[in-house]
Please model this.
Amino acid sequence: MRALRFHSYGDPADVLRLDETTPPDPGPGQVRITVEACGLTPADWAICGGLHTGELPRGIGLEASGTVDSLGPGVTGVRIGEPVFGPVVYTGSSAGAADQAVLRTWFPRPAALGAAKAAALPMAVETAYRGLSALGDVSGRTVLINGAGTTVGFAAAQIAVRLGAHVIASAGKTYADALHERGAEVLAYGEGLGRRVTALAGGPVDRVFDTAPPGAMPELLTTVTDPAHIVTVTDFAAIEALGVRTTDMNLRYDVLGEYAELAARGGFTIPIAATYPLDDWREPLAVSRSGQARGKHLLIP
Model:
């Protein structure tokens, strides 16, 4: 099979290559799929650079959707040929950006949900749900989602609305209308964000979930009465220096089935910017690193 992987750590543009290799075998409690779509995230490029080091070669692609073609020992409740999606086992010699991949957790893919839309869900939904959970009960509270134009932020805005929050979302023009249609009040990024947020909210907001690239934290701190009311998944320097928080590591893949069903009915979405053949992996890498991703980018083997 083909697999996008690296044999040494470094810049992904330099170390990634498309190899021919042996399909991975699913371990106990795992399934292997024939990959129909693989979502890409900034974490993929970070793994190439040495995040979560391990035995080489390694693959990239942390989320995928496809049809089950092999069952690991002890697996029940799923059949060969069934369409599924979920997070990929990425610690082996290949991962989701391949013709075949192993899933460590999986969910049935609803008939009305295409492979690309399903593969776009796992990382964004899990991170967003875990981040909102770190804020506590948001029902009835005013929550600022900073960076709602990112896939995690876009997911978080929808989830927070669904959990009963009054959502203020900072975002660019690309997805401002879509966020408004899904129940958020939208403010543009940029100068005076803190002042504009508190004016719209009528005072400090109750909680902030920060998913944007670092840089806005001084503004965000003006929107709350306590730095601990801010949870960030991007500005890790602010955690020690300013007293804001980040998430724990209790992964929340358990909610993926619920949000896949919701997505199949049109009640939830992760915006897809583009899909690419596996051979054309350099194009989404360049777009992602330009800071102009504007939605999920996926590889289609």
